[in-house]
Fold this sequence. Notes:
This is Chitin-binding protein. Keywords: Signal. Residues 28-194 form the Chitin-binding type-4 domain. Pfam families: LPMO_10. The chain is 15% helix and 29% strand. The chain is an alpha+beta fold and 196 residues long. It has one domain (28-195): chitin-binding protein cbp21 (Coagulation Factor XIII, Chain A, domain 1, Distorted Sandwich), CATH 2.70.50.50. The strands form two sheets. Strands 2, 3, 5, 6, 8 and 9 form a six-stranded mixed β-sheet that branches. It has a three-stranded antiparallel β-sheet with strand order 1-4-7, with no helix packed on it.
Amino acid sequence: xxxxxxxxIIGLGIAATSLFATGSASSHGYTDTPTSRQVYCANGTVKxxxxxxxxxxxxxxxxxxxxxxxxxxxICAGGNSRFAELDDPRGGQWxxxxxxxxxxxxxxxRLTARHATTDFRYYLTRPGYDPSRPLTRSDLDLQxxxxxxxxxxxxxxxxxxxxxLPSGRSGKQLVLAVWTIADTGNAxxxxxxxxx
Length: 196
């Protein structure tokens, strides 16, 4: 009997390890500076986040933004319905990072699985953006204010990019960061609310 119990425990341990390994194989990356919505969900600052609280690194969707990629209203979740809570504007009440118009800023990604990379791109909402509505392309300046080409190289586990925030912004705005993968059809998306 004791051997059967031991065998069952070992079997469960192997199954759990395999399941964990499979789950982490689909893990990839997120921005933590400025703090992204998925980080606020993962660290418990924002409640009622659904599955994203356990998978802040998994906001993966089709690449090619803005011409392709997630549909309007689903951009912050990368078009992934499992993480739809990220697209909920919560009445414009997402926590925000304080920034200044025209400020030099260091943007940072945490990568839990590294991939050959085309580039990292950063977009900012236009003046007049309404943070109480889901994000659409018409809310964004579709020309990124910062593009960091990688030419297929694999980035480090922590990646920082120095850039300058556009001038002429005030109030609550949103930074959309897009990490485009070179050898798949996907990209990773992260929305960070900022207060100018």
